[in-house]
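Continuing the batch. This is chain 6 of the set; chains 1 through 5 are on the previous pages. Same settings as before, nothing changed between runs. Recording input and output for traceability.
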Amino acid sequence: MASQADITEIEAAALRSDRFRLERESDWKRLEGIVSELEKSRLRKISDEDMLALPGLYRTVASSLSIARETSLDAATLAYLESLVQRAWFVVYGPRSSLWAWTRNFLGGGWSAAVRGIGLDVMIALVVMVAGAVVGWLLVASDTEWYHALVPSQFLDTRVPGASREILAKTLEGAADGSGLSMFAAYLFSNNAQVSILAFALGFAFGIPSLLLMVHNTASLGAMLWLFHEGGLTLEFVAWLSVHGTTELFAILLAGAAGLHVGRSMAFPGERSVLQAAAEAGQRSAQVMAGVVLMLVVAGVLEGFARQLVDDMPGRFAIGGFMLALWLAYFYGLRRAEKGEPQP
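Output for chain 6:
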């Protein structure tokens, strides 16, 4: 049986909980009423006074929850406050539109506007990627041992320095029967997604690791370009690459630029605080990255299917050129009519 001291402590805790609830319950009930009406889309039933008070009430109840946790109030009060704060958060800060409306707004101009908003970072990333390809070419041209250091192991089959033109040409051939292509496309999407996400995630370190990753990624491309050039297959290799490359490399370019945008904003916040600058840049970059995932899906399909099933050089150039024109038209030709396009 519980001792008298235990009983006294339980009664004191219950008294504290009751007093705590009585002092603040009116605000809780008011917030709960507003949230309930908003959840039922009954906006007209909410007075202007309650709408103006909503953010303040949310902060008040969130503060009550924090105090309740620190003072170990009863479980019922904690559960009630946690549920109310969670519901209120979605009303105050949650999305205001349906998934379909968000998708329509995103594809209808939000994504392209976000890309234009990081235009300077895209240009810097493009210069870095081109420089990486040139460096890769020059390193392998000076010493073929660099080829094995730069090119990923999955490409070191017969595509090595000294391979004949016939052997290299065979690696560019498609797979007419299409067998196993879906698994191949899934692998390619996974691999490219890792590179893109890493390029974006490393942006927090002032963008420098993102730039280095892009240099390394395109240096391997420059090394392979040198290899096929030496074999007299430059156009054939570019056609083979263009089918998916105009989408894949564009996606990696945008991912690196998004990471660089965050890092550059942190390094040069201007009159804003570093946290504010990072938050604003992160919001814009996150929108760019959402689109990058879509581009990588498209690139995986093109690489796993179109590149394998279309075996002639003009057809491959046509697909790659069309995709490049499509992305450029979308990002830099599509303009939203509404105001508020993000600025660099």
